[in-house]
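Archive entry: two folds, one per protein. Generate the first.
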Amino acid sequence: MLDARVARLEDILEAAASVVLAGGTIVFPSDTSYQIGCDPYCSEAIDAIYHGKRRPDDKPLALHVASTVEFLEYAAGNPLALLVAKRLMPGPLIAIVRKPHFVSDEFAAGERTIGMRVPDDELSRAILERCGPLAALTANPPGGPRYAGGDDVDVLPPADLVIRNGPTRYDRESTIVDVSGSIPRLVREGMLGYDRLTAALGSVDRRNVKVRSQS
């Protein structure tokens, strides 16, 4: 376990990269909750996350990237994704985009779309910049509340490295918006509310939206 509040940033980044490049898993801070992540091209590491989280095989992980420029490489030709990148990223948002051809069907769990994050957290983005994109999801116990950086580290799923940096910036889960179609669709209302989304993106479909304060 490493504490970014006392360790050197260079040491944190080298430790994270060493684990990820060796096919391991890391727990790292994000803006809304801590995440458990790995190399998205390492099947064994992805399997370890699914096993540790007891996650169903048909629920894909999200892809976390370091910048909006990198996000747009995965969403080329999507004008809604461009609006999201310009007006809402980095931020507490998962944007669902059409799966590009270079992303494996295994990673997407058979879906035609993938969820993507550019977190509003400097340490998180530094880790992503050093390690490359990470396949990740919240590091909460199965069915439990999100882990936001408290002292109860025993609730975290198994990982090869845990990086701590105190409480997360935001105290609610991320918002999920699907921009894979012609109209943005709000899937889950979290830190970014419906009014914020419509101000940034125009008309937003909010049918069957999930609204929760914790994840």
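Generate the second and append.
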Amino acid sequence: MKSLAASFLLFLLALTVFDAGFRVDPGQLAVVSSPITGTRNNIGPGMHLKWPLLDRVQRVPLRVLLQPELRYSSRDGRELVQSPWVLARVSDAARYANASGTNPGVPRDRLATALQSSAVPALREQTFAQTLADRGQTVWANTAVADAAAREVGLVIEDRGVASVDMPADSASAKTIQSGMRAIQDEVVARARVDAQAQLKAATAQADSERIQMLATARKSADARRAEGDLEAARIYAEVAAEDPSSAAFDRAAMAYRRARLAGKPVSLDDPAFQALRYQH
């Protein structure tokens, strides 16, 4: 029983020692809420002590980037969305932790509400072209409103700008433009397909013409070589026939006999064409 109690006390002591300190990383601030010492705010990086099992530690980033969206209609009827942004430093970690603890989007929404009231009325008086040329100057014409909204959530704005000006994808203007772009793309694709088919036909016709020309050239060359071969064979045969007429006559008769048999014609050695064979036989 005593060993069990000692083990429990050692466990409780180890847990107390382990929970007596906390670390804040670079780029962070911490807030310690204590029922004994109250609230300690804006604790910087490093190792720190707290009451174990009693104090609650909340860490927040030292700097945050907020990017709300402003939706409105321009003077010429375009539905637009601007994306202003602010880079802010956390000046009151406790206030920022309370604002963003349950919903991290609260600081962004507070800034969006402030800009909606201060900038959107002036933006609605601009045309789409004027808004593009404006480059966000109208959004930040009254910085005091945005600064006040930032202070409410424990921030100090250090830098600001506008990321983009565009039309929301679900707006009628965007759908009309997208439909027109798709029609143009379809026309371009159809024209390109027709051109490609025409080029393919032209290439095929040229290839066929070249093939026919190559075959004709090859056939002409073959005919010429065959004629040369026939002439050479006739010359050799004439020379042989001059030297031995009887052998030449026998060869002619044997050739005629073979051709007749191959052609399926009736063959008789009484035929004058086969006289040389008859005598030889």
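Annotation attached to the second fold: The chain is about 55% helix and 20% strand. The mean pLDDT is 79.
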